[in-house]
Amino acid sequence: MPVRQLPDDLINRIAAGEVVERPASVVKELVENAIDAGARRIAIATAGGGKGLIRVEDDGDGMDEADLVLSVERHATSKLALDTLDDIRTLGFRGEALASIAAVSGLFIASRPQGAGSGLGLGVARGRRAPVEPQAMNQGTIVEVRDLFAAVPARLKFLKSDRAEAGAITEIVKRLAMANPEVAFTLSGSDRSPLKYGAHSGPGALRNRVAEIMGPDFTDNAMTLALSRDGLVVAGLAGLPTYTRANTLSQFYFVNGRAVRDKVLLGAVRAAYADFVFRDRFPALALFVSVDPGDVDVNVHPAKTELRFRDAGAVRGAAIRAMLNALAEAGYKASSSLADRALMSFSAPEPAGSPQPTAPVQGSVWRNPSGEAMPAFSRMPNGVEPGFAEPAARFNASATADDGGFPLGAARAQFFDTYIVAEAGETLVLIDQHAAHERLVYERFKAELASGLVASQAHLIPVVVDLPEEDCNRIEAAAQEFERLGLVLERFGTAAIAVSATPSLLGTTDVAPLVRDIADGLAEWEAAPALSDRMDALIGRMACHGSVRAGRRLRPEEMNALLREMERTPHSGQCIHGRPTYVALKKKDLERLFGR
Questions:
Q1: Which of 196, 209, 231, 384 is 20 to 30 Å from 149 at the Cα level?
Q2: What is the DSSP annotation of 60-77?
């Protein structure tokens, strides 16, 4: 087949296929144009999921007749002052959007610049431009797109339902609104519930806009990100590790005001939260990165959702550091939504006359010698009184009414030899002693490892642990890694490992289960993750074995010492597996539970 020049109409439709993927792509291009034009109010209306109608009205600078006519031509733009792509400071810059949209739909543009007596309107149908006509309107620009993809019916077959396309438009508008809190947005139409975001100014503008979009529950449980390094700025809000989601839909990323899905930033979030969340849970966040426009290439994707950093390592490092700083500052803080979930798990007592169980749940109540049911606690530290069954909880009689002004309060009781009950002002705090101590031991391990020395204690007689030969081979190969952690392991015959020293932080932990657990971990990691990741995983397993176990009875001073150390230790609001270490219930929440 001979080479031939394609007709302009077909060229435009091919270009439109790159720029206009779906109705949401049109909304994105038009709203970005409005923002670049200095708009402070943008109204979007749609019908049929954007396939029937997309209308965007703004109060921006507007265009005169010459600019209006040129705006629908291919590769015409007002956003590149110089013929270079090295310093892009606007959202749009290609000059293809309006021409591409006009090639696959009916397009009408009306615009009125400041000082003009009236506006001008211009229609374009399938690439054919109509004459310019006067238009009564306020300052700004109105763009209407009708019958999208009417010129390419095959493309319509690949679009989703009206509801799905309307939802995609909503997500685009949310991201644009989040990046521009100073602009007021309204989104309406016959295919949706209306949305309205007011304009915000001042220091709290971003937080207010994020609260509108992600909800006040997120901002109440979010940490502020703020880091500036060598002209690189990282800002935004990131959720506490105990405030997570089942997917990444609550993660928003912006670079120089542009909404993106960047692998560098995604990897930074995974790395920063690696110690704090479950593998199948994802933190919620709104992450904003500002970098010199010359250090980022946004011209790598037609939709401008992907980009390339000149120094990706610096951006990743700054983002991780900003999140780690915020996590450290959050300290022991845990999500307030945990209290709501805890209260929902309580149920009201059955009405009078309802059937009652014939026997109490084991450990739930205990009785005196005459058979009378008694509260399920006894005095501490004197233990159980003679003649009484083993209690499910023990009351701390030595504690006074004063909580010492400590954030986590003073310990009052221990339930089921697992949970500590503390009182802090008008807040009841429930602490999982194992999860809390596990995090404390883990952080101590990391601090000692960072200093270059993990103290160990030698065993007078080495402990010999029998293991399958393949497990022994893996442990022998990783012996140097263990030695850095204060754990000295040596091969003892074909199918055994001798433990001659353990980290001092582990105390008198049972060595055999620890070694077997590590052997299981090495089998899982045989695909060889990074050494630093493997070291963190090893520390995590040892911290789990070296922490206060569930079922261990604690003295009052031990419980309070645990609370004080939690208050001093970063990240102590969640264990190393991402579970919360404590739940705080306000007095008013408890009163509501009892109908007071």
A1: 196
A2: S----HHHHHHHTSTT--
Distance between CA atoms of residues 324 and 417, nearest Å: 33
Contact 142, 110 (CB under 8 A): yes
Three-state DSSP at 277 gives coil
Residue whose token pair is 């929440």: 589
Rounded CA separation 116/68 (Å): 14
| pLDDT at res. 368 | 39
Q: Which of 400, 418, 419, 397 is nearest to 409 (CA)?
A: 400
Place of tokens 């069954």: 389
CB burial of residue 329 (10 Å; 0-12, 13-18, 19+): exposed
- Residues near 314 by beta carbon (within 8 Å), at least 6 away in sequence: 229, 230, 232
Cβ pair 460, 505 in contact under 8 A: no
The one-letter code for the residue type at 34 is A
**Distance from C-alpha of 421 to C-alpha of 309, rounded to nearest angstrom:** 50
Beta bridge partners of 232: 229
d(CA 37, CA 25): 19
Q: Cα 365 to the chain's mean position, in Å?
A: 42
Mean pLDDT by 10 residues, the chain (596 residues): 70 63 92 93 96 96 92 73 62 73 90 92 86 94 93 83 94 96 96 93 94 93 93 94 86 93 91 81 93 82 74 94 90 69 58 42 36 34 33 44 76 89 90 88 83 83 90 88 86 91 81 84 60 63 71 86 89 81 86 77
Burial of 454 (0-12, 13-18, 19+ CB in 10 A): buried
Give the pairing of strands 285-290 and 251-255: parallel
Tokens in use for 421? 């009950």
pLDDT of residue 482: 83
Q: Show Cβ contacts of residue 352 under 8 Å, excluding neighbours closer than 6 positions.
A: none
Question: Residue type for 386, please?
Answer: P
> Which of 111, 36, 19 shows the shortest CA–CA distance to 67?
111
Residue 348, CA distances (Å) to 352, 356, 580, 583 in order: 12, 14, 25, 20
Question: What's residue 63's pLDDT?
Answer: 93
CB 82 within 8 A of CB 294: no
Nearest partner of 101 among 175, 27, 174, judged by Cα: 27
Strand partners, 42: 58, 185
Extract the tokens encoding 184.
């007021």
Contact 107, 143 (CB under 8 A): yes
CB 521 within 8 A of CB 543: no
> pTM value?
0.69
What is the amino acid identity at position 252?
F
Here the tokens at position 289 are 């990165």
Distant-in-sequence, close-in-space partners of 59: CB < 8 Å, separation ≥ 6:
39, 40, 41, 138, 139, 140
The pLDDT, as a whole number, for residue 300 is 65
- Report d(CA 109, CA 117) in Å as an integer: 17
**Domains by residue range for the chain, with CATH:** 8-197 (3.30.565.10), 205-330 (3.30.230.10), 338-346+401-596 (3.30.1370.100)
Q: Tokens for 286? A: 């709104």
